[in-house]
Design goal:
This protein is α+β, with helices and mostly antiparallel strands. It is built from 11 helices and 19 strands.
């Protein structure tokens, strides 16, 4: 009899211990309320404060309000995905293109460029080293000081000038020695001006600026295009001591030609990856991992920073029919210092129609809660080894068969 009471007493202690640990192993939203139980840091009126967040229901009224706000649309310039890259890395990038996208002007010669000068009827001036040499090897190299030497003319300034300016001055000075001067000036090799394309492109590297304007779109195409992991919304242009954010997605899909910035010497074009454009799905889902096991957490990269709640749940494998509670799906949002919590009751499957119109934001956390009955089964599973041990123990400290007659 004493042994039986001891068993009962130990079972009660075990249950009490589990209760002190919230009864349920793991994480869950219990009890459900309309307000967070933890104070969250947020910003109001440009000040950081601590407050409990209201849990907003994902219903038809919320969807209507979201779709009224133009910022929630994918190609809106104020969409949060256009700001998240700089927020996460602490960048001081200026949103948008340089204040004024300078119109293209004629190419201006620079140091290390090679000029090809042709004087008609005077081959000794055109190719003094032999007619079988290439224009590039026989041309006039502009020195580091921006000048080059030409017969009868002497040292002449070339850097910062167009080929038309150089031709006019050569014609004027050679006319003292040659009657009816006819000459042409061209750039045989462009070597003075370059831009750098780095990041998520097929062939990153240096690209030369030539007489044809080099724009962002052309530079990326010359680099073989962007990789699959590229973040088209947040391409970074570094010019002088400033950086600018270019939204190439708006150029591709929205026709915003202002994003196709004209590049100039020294520009660095960085195409970042989409590693910051992720959402996280936790809880009772059917995500299958290597080896056939089922995982219950997963991070998903948002394609072009666009994904709905239904898409995220689908890519995570959907609900686990045995352990999940579809009535308790939560979205936790903490981006840009404005945290929010949303709740979706998907007990009825047609609620996923609303979820398909609920746009996610980078770094959202989706949590599918656990069914109440599964929690109790886990409790029983935890205390079963203890009960078995008590059944195997007698007062003489001898282990008996687990089942007694």
């Amino acid at each position: 009899m004493n042994l039986q009471r001891a068993r009962e007493y130990l079972v009660l202690l075990t249950l009490c211990g589990l209760t002190a640990c919230s009864i349920v192993p793991g994480q869950h939203m219990s009890p459900f309320s309309r307000q967070s139980s933890t104070e969250i840091p947020t910003r109001e009126n440009d000040e950081a404060i601590l407050k409990k967040l209201n849990i907003q229901s994902i219903d038809a009224e919320l969807i209507i309000e979201l779709e009224k706000n133009y910022k929630n649309f994918s190609l809106a310039p104020d969409n949060v995905a256009n700001y998240y890259f700089d927020y996460r890395i602490g960048s001081n990038t200026t949103k948008g293109v340089p204040v004024k996208n300078e119109p293209y002007t004629q190419y201006r010669v620079g140091p290390r460029d090679i000029l090809n000068i042709t004087v008609w009827d005077h081959p000794e001036l055109t190719i003094p080293a032999g007619e079988f040499r290439s224009a590039e090897s026989a041309g006039n190299v502009v020195g580091e000081d921006g000048t080059f030497f030409y017969p009868y003319v002497g040292v002449m300034q070339a850097a910062g000038r167009t080929v038309e300016d150089i031709r006019e001055e050569l014609t004027r000075k050679l006319s003292k020695y040659i009657e009816f001067v006819q000459l042409d000036v061209r750039v045989a090799a462009y070597r003075s001006q370059r831009v750098y394309v780095v990041g998520e492109v097929a062939t990153p590297g240096v690209q030369l600026v030539k007489d044809i304007p080099l724009t962002v779109l052309e530079a990326i195409n010359n680099a073989g295009g962007v990789n699959q992991d590229a973040d088209l919304r947040n391409i970074i242009l570094t010019r002088d001591d400033k950086t600018y954010s270019i939204n190439l997605l708006n150029l591709y899909e929205g026709g915003d030609i202002t994003q196709n910035v004209l590049l100039r010497h020294g520009d660095v074009l960085n195409v970042p990856d989409s590693s910051l454009n992720k959402v996280f799905v936790l809880g009772e889902t059917n995500h299958f991992v290597a080896g056939g096991a089922t995982g219950r957490s997963r991070s998903l990269v948002m394609n072009k920073a666009r994904m709905t709640l239904t898409e995220a749940l689908s890519e995570a494998g959907g609900f686990n029919q045995e352990t999940s509670d579809p009535a308790r799906i939560f979205v936790f949002r903490g981006g840009l210092g404005k945290p929010e919590i949303y709740h979706l009751n998907a007990k009825s499957p047609d609620a996923l129609l609303l979820a398909d119109r609920f746009p996610l934001q980078p770094r959202d956390v989706i949590y599918v809660d656990r069914a109440e009955g599964i929690r109790w089964n886990q409790i029983i599973g935890q205390i079963q080894p203890t009960i078995n041990l008590l059944n195997a123990f007698d007062g003489a400290l001898r282990v008996q068969p687990l089942l007694r007659q």
